[in-house]
Design brief:
CATH class of the largest domain: Mainly Beta
GO molecular function, one term: integrin binding
Membrane topology: Single-pass type I membrane protein
InterPro entries: Ig-like_fold (IPR013783), PKAT (IPR045219), PKAT_KLD (IPR046846), PKD/Chitinase_dom (IPR022409), PKD_dom (IPR000601), PKD_dom_sf (IPR035986), PMEL_NMB_N (IPR059017)
Largest sheet: 6 strands, mixed
Mean pLDDT: 77
Shape: elongated
Distance between the termini: 109 Å
Number of helices: 8
CATH architecture of the largest domain: Sandwich
Keywords: Glycoprotein, Membrane, Signal, Transmembrane, Transmembrane helix
CATH superfamily of the largest domain: Immunoglobulins
Radius of gyration: 42 Å
Family: Belongs to the PMEL/NMB family.
Length: about 550
């Protein structure tokens, strides 16, 4: 009789479908004791395969599980997650073309999406009108635990607001446990990682839709997530004249800005004290900062190794004080006689110097950096309009004399824009060969007269620098009309100067100068007279043009 009972029990166990059998998707894993996740259940529980049928991959029933095509699911995660924080998963259903979910949770055809007359009618056409199903079944039947409104393990659906319009059942599986919920065409949930072991894990999800007599499987998806005890960090670097940020090649004597991003989507480290310890590898020493952004200038060329350590001091609830085991009577008597104020209890918690309870978490970043000379600065020191004959007067030509500091450039680009430097009109790039000194002349043509913004960029393989200027361009030829205008303006300026001098002499108040007896004083008055004469006819130049710094040679 005992053997028959054991055999019957083995047959029943073999016939029972467990969550692990349905949700493992063909993956086999040994039964291991896992730490329980809050709100999750063991995958050794029984699965109701009558209400929630299970189909293997390749089963022909998958082709008919949805009207109008096949539904796919996309499972995303914000992993990696620092142990103790929450990791979030979002699953989204991708419906067949021209189908969407309406505000009541029904699946409808989009109007005017295809040539199908069903989707072009004024009356809405449903793929699945679940609202009508629920309204026809009656309130008592729809809320009974023995009807559709239960999960695969037999638990009833939660009756929060709008639950009757959520027509999809999502069953998630990981770490030997499962979590089930209802939702619309997308679902989002988070799980705390305090009881999840470090490393890579797989999150799988199976999605079922509402049916007349049972729920119908429509899609499966899975994603890999990572739980780590190292703070996930990302470091971005920026330098003003660097041509390619991703190549880790930077320019000497130009500051590099480092920006540290901590991946903490659940805000687990919000109340933590975070410090950043930098070692730039150039012998400048260790630099500790409380800000996530810093800058550093390499003054030498070469290859350097950058090391960053991010440390977070996380406050946690203090563990209770636990007494130690009682000491023998003789030992207690001896301690009491030597120190009457001693205590036999200790605190089993981790303390920092200020007495608070906390845990430490660190994140590390290491990368190699190459520092080269690069182009540091570009200056436009002269602009000259080229005189042309009438036969060559189609365009106006202007020569730009440009100098640079740092390494020698290999290419030059000129961008001609409107006076606001916002709208680009033309871009010209040319390779150049500079062998000795960074001094070159760039000739550019302008089709029409006017005011332009000029941007000249000199670059090499690793760096580039920019100089800008505003230029006013006249017509390409000096026609008779233009010459007449200049002659008229010149004569007008002469007559204006003569008139101003006559008025000055006529209305200036006369003040006699007292005659002195000394010859030196007479000479001083004469010098002052000639200085006034020079100031009238030869005024001092007040022009300040930052572009005219020196007189370069032309390359």
């Amino acid at each position: 009789h005992l053997g028959l009972l054991l055999l019957a029990e083995a047959v029943l166990c073999a016939a029972t479908t467990r969550f692990q059998d349905v949700l493992s998707h063909g993956r086999t894993s040994p039964i291991t004791s896992y730490k329980k996740l809050q709100g999750w259940s063991s995958d050794q529980n029984t699965w109701n395969k009558k209400l929630y049928p299970f189909w293997e991959e390749g089963d022909p029933r998958w082709k008919d599980c949805w009207k109008g095509g096949r539904v796919t699911a996309k499972l995303d995660t914000d992993s990696p997650a620092l142990v103790g924080s929450n990791v979030t998963f979002v699953v989204t259903l991708q419906l067949p073309k021209c189908q969407k979910e309406d505000i009541d949770g029904n699946i409808i055809y989009e109007r005017n999406c295809t040539q199908d007359h069903l989707a072009s009618q004024e009356q809405q056409v449903y793929v699945y009108n679940w609202t009508e199903w629920i309204d026809n079944c009656g309130w008592e039947n729809c809320t009974s635990n023995h009807s559709h409104n239960v999960f695969p393990d037999g638990r009833p659906f939660p009756h929060y607001p709008g639950w009757r319009r959520r027509n999809f059942v999502y069953v998630f599986h990981t770490f030997g446990q499962y979590y089930q919920t209802i939702g619309r065409s997308s679902a989002k949930f988070s799980v705390n990682t305090a009881n999840i072991t470090l490393g890579k894990h797989v999150m799988a999800v199976s999605i079922y839709r509402r049916g007349h007599s049972a729920y119908v499987p429509i899609a499966r998806a899975s994603a890999i997530y990572v739980v780590t005890d190292k703070i996930p960090i990302l470091v971005s670097m920026f330098q003003k004249h660097d041509r390619n940020i991703s190549d880790s090649i930077f320019i000497k004597d130009s500051p590099i800005r480092f920006d540290v991003k901590i991946h903490d989507p659940s805000y687990y480290l919000n109340n933590s004290a975070i410090s950043y310890k930098w070692n730039f590898g150039d012998g400048s020493g260790l630099f500790v900062a409380s800000s996530s952004t810093t800058s550093h200038t390499y003054t030498l060329q070469g290859n350097f190794t950058l090391n960053l350590t991010v440390q977070a001091i996380i406050p946690v609830p203090c563990r209770p004080v636990t007494p130690t085991a009682p000491l023998p009577t003789s030992a207690v008597a001896t301690r009491a006689s030597s120190n009457s104020d001693s205590s036999t209890t200790v605190e089993s918690m981790e303390d920092n110097p200020d007495g608070g309870c906390h845990i430490y978490r660190n994140g590390y970043y290491r990368t190699g950096i190459s520092v080269v000379e690069g182009i540091l600065e570009v200056n436009i020191i002269q602009m000259t309009s080229i005189q042309m004959t009438e036969s060559q007067a189609e365009n106006s030509l202007v020569d730009f004399v440009v100098t640079c500091q740092g390494s020698l450039p290999t290419d030059v680009c000129t961008v001609v824009s409107d006076p606001t430097c916002q709208v680009s009109k033309s871009v010209v790039c040319d390779p150049i060969i500079v062998t000795d000194e960074c001094l070159l002349t760039i000739r550019r043509a302008f089709e029409e007269p006017g005011t332009y913004c000029i941007n000249i960029t000199l670059g090499d393989d690793t760096s580039q620098a920019l100089a800008s200027a505003l230029i006013s361009v006249n017509g390409g030829s000096s026609s008779g009309t233009t010459e007449g205008v200049f002659i008229f303006l010149g004569l007008l300026a002469v007559f204006a100067a003569i008139g101003a001098f006559v008025l000055y002499k006529r209305y200036k108040q006369y003040k006699p100068i007292e005659r002195s007896a000394g010859q030196a004083e007479n000479q001083e008055g004469l010098t002052a007279y000639f200085n006034d004469f020079k100031a009238i006819f030869f005024p001092r130049s007040t022009e300040r043009n930052p572009l005219l710094k020196s007189k370069p040679g032309i390359v």
